[in-house]
């Protein structure tokens, strides 16, 4: 099989920006997108006219985004607002830059789900299973976590470790939405939503926008900030077993293993080399499935693995140091990718991982994607 | 068809499934060319891409994979049923089905528990295949 290994360290992230996160009923997607784009442009040191590639994600209409920003790119890609799209979009942008389709690509993600009362269930996501009352991506993850509990003896107190660690990080992040301290008991006593999951296993729903700017590693050398390189990337989709949305009877283990082989081989690193993990966390169980699928621990052992604050700053594997989707912001993977860049630049202040050189982004979903970033 | 939870777009592909259910038969789509059984139904066979698709009545035997208890209703009609369970079962013939327990959840519910289909006429027009301990 061919690979992307020859693209190791060829493309760099040179600009990142984000809006505040919260509830902004008077701001449109385009207004939020413009704020994030301006921030990323300043961060990169590029001039607006140098942007000749555009990726929009969850933006209602890509052309309106381009119109608002005054861009006429030679390469544009519009992606839907699914969490799995962030990693996919970044890999697409890497390929566009390496192929010569574009020199400087701006990737813009916007979300106004909070102020427009998006439900993520019921009529917002109609499916064949509605007559039995099955809906919502959270319930799909609850199904998988129940299987994990039954097969491996994993407990909800172990699952709580994930939410508790990420909340500790959010408290250190000035941008984060959730700042109230949380204990394992708080998690256990939270309102059940789709048991065995409770409120504190669920991602936030908030408004905001994120922008990343990518270019070739060669061009990145002359820009404002030290470039962060895309050192590894990989992916595998699981559509054949996707009849239940956001669910997989094998918790995407095969796809995660396949993706991990690709990303580690391309990057030339393994789990032991990773200084910080950015793990897509729409629901807390995904983190456990990711740790197993990407070889951080053996299959079935993620519950014990996360005990004792291993994922917290100061632990062996600092994960989602911005607070993740559970406590920072529901930016569907995008905020985690800019956190990866900021950690590698050493810009994270009191939540900085010391000596951070390798950061791993993982999204274990029906479109599993992974990216390894390193400092140039 | 609906009793408050929508059947999306009144999917014509699903019509034989609902017709069979009203007559207390559980069915899945079966490929006339390669014999692949699948559910939900597909316009072509996901295995061989044939358009020659039949509906096959299955045994109704299944095993439990998992279940969740909903404490939040995303449709008003389910508000009065809270908390309610949804179970995921594997049919003996292969396909997975999201469903409910008919009556209370089996006390010894766990992955692998043998189940059998039972039918619940929730309205004049809609009969839902559900499951009980075998
Ligand atoms: Zn066939």
From TrEMBL, chain A:
Gene3D superfamilies: 3.40.47.10. GO terms for molecular function: acyltransferase activity. Keywords: Acyltransferase, Transferase. It is an enzyme of class 2 (transferase). Signal peptide: none annotated. It holds the Pfam family Thiolase_C_1. It comes from the Bacteria. Its EC number is 2.3.1.-. This is Thiolase family protein. It comes from Bosea minatitlanensis.
TrEMBL record, chain B:
SUPFAM superfamilies: Nucleic acid-binding proteins. Residues 55-120 form the ChsH2 C-terminal OB-fold domain. Residues 18-51 form the ChsH2 rubredoxin-like zinc ribbon domain. InterPro entries: ChsH2_C, ChsH2_Znr, NA-bd_OB-fold, Thioester_dehydratase-like. It comes from the Bacteria. This is Zn-ribbon domain-containing OB-fold protein. It comes from Bosea minatitlanensis.
């Amino acid at each position: 099989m061919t690979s992307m290994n020859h693209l190791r360290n060829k493309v760099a992230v040179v600009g990142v920006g984000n809006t505040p996160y919260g509830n902004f009923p008077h701001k449109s997607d385009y207004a939020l997108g413009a704020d994030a784009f301006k921030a990323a442009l300043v961060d990169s040191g590029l001039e607006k006219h140098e942007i000749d590639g555009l990726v929009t994600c969850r933006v209602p209409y890509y052309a309106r985004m381009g119109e608002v920003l005054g861009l006429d790119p030679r390469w544009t890609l519009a992606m839907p607002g699914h969490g799995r799209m962030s990693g996919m979009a970044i890999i697409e942008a890497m390929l566009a830059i390496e192929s010569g389709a574009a020199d400087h690509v701006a990737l813009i993600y916007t979300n106004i789900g909070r102020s427009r009362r998006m439900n993520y269930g019921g009529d917002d996501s109609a499916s064949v299973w509605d007559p039995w009352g099955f809906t919502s991506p959270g319930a799909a993850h609850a199904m998988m976590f129940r299987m994990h509990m039954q097969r491996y003896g994993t407990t909800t107190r172990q699952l709580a470790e994930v939410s508790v660690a990420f909340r500790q990080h959010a408290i250190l992040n000035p941008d984060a939405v959730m700042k109230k301290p949380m204990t394992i008991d708080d998690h256990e006593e939270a309102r059940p939503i789709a048991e065995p999951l409770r409120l504190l296993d669920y991602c936030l729903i908030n408004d905001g926008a994120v922008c990343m700017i990518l270019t070739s590693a060669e061009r990145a050398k002359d820009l404002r900030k030290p470039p962060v390189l895309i050192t590894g990337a990989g992916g595998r989709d699981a559509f054949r077993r996707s009849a239940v949305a956001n669910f997989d009877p094998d918790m995407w283990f095969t796809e995660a293993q396949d993706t991990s082989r690709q990303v580690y081989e391309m990057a030339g690193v393994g789990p032991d080399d990773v200084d910080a993990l950015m793990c897509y966390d729409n629901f807390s169980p995904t983190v456990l499935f990711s740790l197993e699928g990407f070889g951080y621990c053996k299959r079935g052992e993620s519950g014990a693995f996360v005990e004792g604050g291993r994922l917290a700053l100061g632990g062996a594997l600092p994960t989602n140091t911005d607070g993740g989707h559970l406590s920072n912001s529901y930016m569907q993977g995008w905020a985690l990718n800019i956190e990866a860049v900021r950690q590698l630049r050493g810009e994270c202040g009191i939540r900085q991982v010391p000596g951070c050189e390798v950061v791993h982004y993982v999204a274990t979903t029906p479109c599993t994607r992974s990216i390894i970033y390193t400092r140039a | 068809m609906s009793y408050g939870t929508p059947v999306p777009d009144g999917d014509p592909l699903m019509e034989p499934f609902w017709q069979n259910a009203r007559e207390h038969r559980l069915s899945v789509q079966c490929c006339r060319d390669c014999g692949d059984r699948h559910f939900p139904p597909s316009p072509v066979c996901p295995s061989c891409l044939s358009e020659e698709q039949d509906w096959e009545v299955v045994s109704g035997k299944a095993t439990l994979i998992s279940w969740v208890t909903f404490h939040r209703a995303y449709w008003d009609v389910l508000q009065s049923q809270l908390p309610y369970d949804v179970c995921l079962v594997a049919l003996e013939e292969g396909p997975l089905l999201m469903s409910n327990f008919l009556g209370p959840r089996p006390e010894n519910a766990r992955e692998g528990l043998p189940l059998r289909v039972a039918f619940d006429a929730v309205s004049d027009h809609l009969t839902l295949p559900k499951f009980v301990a075998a």
